[in-house]
Every structure is written in structure tokens, then in C-alpha cells.
Amino acid sequence: MKKSRGRTGRKRRRKHLQSFMGGVSCSHKLEYIKLKKWLKDRGFEDSNLRPAEFWDTGRGLMTTKALQAGDLIISLPEKCLLTTGTVLSSCLGEYIMKWKPPVSPLIALCTFLIAEKHAGEKSLWKPYLDVLPKTYTCPVCLEHDIVSLLPEPLRKKAQEQRTTVQELYMSSKAFFSSLQPLFAENTGTIFNYSALEWAWCTINTRTIYMKHSQRECFSLEPDVYALVPYLDLLNHSPNVQVKAAFNEQTRSYEIRTNSQCKKYEEVFICYGPHDNQRLVLEYGFVVMDNPHSTVYVSSDILLKYFPPLDKQRNTKLSILKDHDFLENLTFGWDGPSWRLLTALKLLSLGADEFTCWRRTLLGDVISARNEQQTLNITAKICHFLIQETQHVLLQISQLKRNKENLKKHLALVEALRLEDLKILQKSAEILCNLNMAKT
Q1: For the SET domain, which residue ranges apply (predicted)?
Q2: Distance (Å, rounded) from C-alpha 411 to C-alpha 400?
Q3: Which helix (H) or strand (E) holds 58?
Q4: Which of 30, 252, 333, 385 has the fewest CB atoms within 10 Å of its CB?
């Protein structure tokens, strides 16, 4: 009797430890049981990773043993990967091979995903398709009202992303129609815009980079995609380092960690040193306290604080443009970037100082007046961006009350804007200290 109580106590402690680490195991869920069996049939040996739900990152993978730097996190056999090779060996292969002009590797993969999803129970890839997200939060999926709340540079890229997917759909319609012999239903209803949008987001957010040799049946766009079941449950963290590559000897895609990870903790990989705007654009999420995050300053905002009557204004702008100083002007956790300050120093040059513009671009101090004016204008721009960000956050909180169906998308933009606000407030503090040091 005592013995069993002790075991229950241990169980309870273990349960407490697992939830204490911020994750609740999902291994018992039917879709994951089926996925693991499907992977095992394809040669995947069970690793120390378990699907779990984490309070801060959502769905991810937890480790059941402590990991040391150099440990193999996961090894996924080639048979488990979904590539253009998979597509060509399916019933779509002959249609792709004879279609002219050739389709892109991306469209081939999108077509396969849509066709397999439509096949339902009959699909060999059903266990994988069942764990893929049903919806995405990439900008291409956001409503116009939500996109308008994004910071200006990201807003522009979001609109470009939407145009890309719309053009992809329009240019692929004839190819989709050619697949009619494979389907009882009309291909127009199967391969509709929302199906392509879902497939495109699946590939854009979940594929790993894997170079394949060029095939004549595809267009000249690089064939560099592979979907990796189970492995794609690993979430991103900017604070970890991993080594990921296809191992030619084992014919498996392997990831090794360069960081330590405690038992029952979430295992992370790093998608690259991306700022939050890039993470939202490519993957549809935000990382809090992201060390790579920055707030971009557009050239319109830059010019707001300079006298329009400055006779050298247009020449100064031409110099900045020619030397690529009108793009990537930012505020970061350590204050205004060198590029932003340099651009503002050049715009602040007095008529008597203008001949020194080359020295300004090299980072030389021209005069105390120029330095002071640059700091003042930088602070003004920072405060303007703080006010603008606070105004958007107010709009978001009002929309959250009225638009229940958009809560998930609004939460994404809110997280991005809150990070921006933290960076701008930190920058304002740094500028204030710099000003005090000069006076």
C-alpha cells in the first residue's frame, strides 16, 4: 500500500515538474500517435522529443532527457521528407512533366498539398496533413484593416506578399485545369484561391532549405524546399544555436544542438537572426525581447523634421540615396543605429559645413552644433514614433472588443507594436542620457 502511494507521489511530482516547465505533453493525442506510427513505418526511430503545448509559444516539442551541446536532437530519414521528388513520383508527376511552360518547384509542392488534403482518408500523407495548421497568421492571410495597423515598411511588404500569391494563383489556373482527369469534382473548386493560400503558407512557414538538382520539368526557380514532418514542430528562439543539414551517409536530415536544454523543457531551433518584422512576414509570429528587433524609420518621417527651405535639401537627399543611406535606418535596444544618426547628421549640415559631407558619411564629427541638432532631431523622431505606436495600440484594444473573429490576428499586431514601443522607449532614454552628457 505504502509503495503504490510513493509511486503516485512520484507521478504527481513528475506531472508538476512537466507543467512547471511551461509545457503540457500532447503525446496521448490521437493525431500525434498516428503521426509517430506513420514516421516509424518510414524508418524514423523514436527520439527524446514529445509534442507539447506551451503557454508562451503554443505547440512545440519538449525533451524527455537533458540535452548537452553537440547532442543530436532529431534525425529524419529521407523517406519522411516531402520534396519535389515526392510530387513527381505521385500521380501528378506525368501532368507536371508534360506541362508547358514548366511549373515552378513551389507550385508543384502547393499542388501536391492541395491534392492530398482533398484526398482525405485516401492520402498516404494524411497523418502529416492532420497535424498541419488549419489557418495561418502570415500577412497574406490578414484582412486589409489588420494590415493597415502594421508598421509602414512591413505594411508595404505585406501588400507585396499578397500580390505575389494572387499572381501565383492566376498564372497557375490553366495548369490546375489540366489535372481534371485525376478528379471527379471540378478542379476549379478544389484548387481555389484559399486552398493555394493555405498551401503557400504551409511551404513558406514550414520548409527547410534543401538544395535539389535542377530538373527539366520545372522552371528555373531554385528547387530548395523540403517539408519535414515532426521536425517542423520545433519552434524558433533567437537565443539558441543549432547545426542542421542533410547527412549523406545516413540519408537523414539531422539537427544537433549547440546549447544545453533541461529535461522537460521546450527544445528550440533558430531560423536565423531575424527581427520581428521579418518573423511576422515569413512565419506569422513575434518573439518577445528579440535581441535582433528594430524599429524602422521611413524616409518620409526623416524629412518631417527638416526645414523645407533648406536649399541643399534635394542635393543632400541625392547623396543619401546614392550612398544607400535612405534604407534600413533603425532604432534598436541600444538606441538609434549608426546609419540613422549618419543620415541625420548629413541632413543637419549647415550651408557652411556642406562641403564636409564625405567626412560625415565616414563618421567624422563636423561641429558641436551639428552633433547637437542631430541628437535633437533623433529624439523628436523617436517621440513621434512612440506616439504613433501608442495610437495604434489604442486602436487595437478597441478593435479587440468589437471584432471577436479577428482576435488572433489583432494579438499578433499588438505583440509586434508592444515590442516596438519597448525599443523606442529604451532609445528615448538613451538619447536623453546622451543629451544630458553633452550639456
Answers
A1: 42-272
A2: 8
A3: strand 58-63
A4: 30
